[in-house]
Amino acid sequence: MEQTNLVLHDRNRLKEHSIATILFRKYSVRLVGMLFLLTVAASAFFPFYTMLISSSHDNYAIMNTVTLVPGTSFLRNYARLTENLNIWRGFRNSAFIATVSTTLNLYITALTAYAFSKFSFKGKSFLFGIILFSIMIPGQVGTIGFYKQMSDMKLINSYLPLILPHMANCFGVFFFRQYLNATLPDEIIEASLMDGCKELTIFHWVVLPMMVPALVTQGVLAFIGNWNSYLMPLIIIREGRKMTLPVLIATVKSANVADFGAQYVGILISVIPLLVIFSFASNMLMDKITAGDALKG
Amino acid sequence: MVLKNRAKYAYFFITPFFLAYITFTLFPILYSFYLSFTELDPLGGTIKFVKFNNYIRLFTSGFFLQSFLNTLAIWIISIVPQLTLAMVLSLLLQAKWIRGRRLFRSIFYFPNLVTPVTIGVLFGMLFSHPGGAINNILLMLNLTKEAVHFENSPILSRMVIGLAICWQNFGYNILFFTAGLNSISSTIYEAAEIDGANAWQKATKITLPLMRPILIYVMITSVIGGLQMFDVSKMVFTDVPGDRTTTMVQYMYESAFERWQISFGASVSYGIFLIIAVLSLLSYRVVSGNPAPRLHKHQTIGGGN
To answer: Which of A121, A149, B47, B248 could be bridged to B7 by S-S, CB 3.0 to 4.6 A?
Structure first.
């Protein structure tokens, strides 16, 4: 009842107003909305802008003025940064670890998802239940045990503890299984079997090629997640020349004490690869989420 | 017919995954549990069984409680504006007259991909004292007489960390909310329009109730992820009085790898696990227990696997 009253009231009010008032209200709402969007977008961009601009100014300008246009000190800042911090070695280490572990992750995960999607075997739903349950477990629970285990196995300062665990990516199995259930008809597998293909051949030459779109999205996300990870490399790698980029970036302040210019160049270098990936994968990544892949269940 | 007897291949295909799962996921979790009941000498490597000693210390010393309160405070400071902003912006971006929707969403989403350590260092620099960009702007606009020492104040330093985390995640939540909004059939809105509902009524009586499954999902993942905050919160400030920005995972890290009390660190990680489990259930109750009408009862997240 209350709602109908409200609606009637609203209609009567509308009749009282002239067309001009209605148009004015409509466009002022749009104006406020657009201004709000632009303000949030500007604030979201502000930290990057400051980083970009400050990296090219000397410390005096950064510390004492509001800098809005690029300066001329970028190369000097860069030189001081690389004198104290071998940032490109960290860059290479991170790239190596992220590439190898993402490749391994995708292959093993896709293989497992294929088995869960197109085969029937004993214990299948139980094992898949374990995978789903594991997605919900907070990652930090195993951290200490993992460290002790790796130190027992004499794997501290080795890259293996940073690569091998990614073979067991539970979310990846879930995601790929959903994808295969939706896109790969059983008939294709049956036909290939009739033609006498071996099981592993079918996976390599029929299933994997069909999974390319899903592999790319999951791969980009896994790569970024790996590239960004901090806690694991921090506790596993103790040797300076093996450290990954995030671990080095974390020390940028203490390596360049009170040297804002050099620090800004350092964090700028760590953002660039992500910006490059994002510039051609943004739509794909956002679609993966907006299509509700995680939500369809 | 040919499809019979394929089970052995399935076992062959899932073996590498489960080997890695048992070795690198399951075993460390159980090993942590075992370690939390021991005392480990980091130099000699000897392990002594000490029953509940670590847990008694965990819950009576007050440091863990403090780290929990710090985490909760920073989490609340970041989650409230984060979800509000994400909801308002995703509703706004649904409007037909908006131009450049994807560009806006990209700008809002990008911070989510940036290395958390970088975000932490960057915000620490922006809010540093003296000479941080924020202080320079405040001084230029004459909003303060002298530079604000953000790091020196527990409240301000928590707010800066909360802001950094909000900045990192609000665009990601927009994507989820947008997915939820798109899943609501336009016929429901059309029917409401015919009945004369205005924009506010449509938002509160249709959109919000139908968005509940997404809200539940976002809330629970925010609890699980947010209470494990480490990278950003550790990097922003290093010298806050009373360690009022030391989070639970940071306390675990410092116990195990700076003070080298590895067994105690393991008990901290199980303390965190307990807290996260309780708070996820609690937030599930809060978000789903509201007596408002649910039009689509079958519309639950993660169901029907």
So the answer is: A121
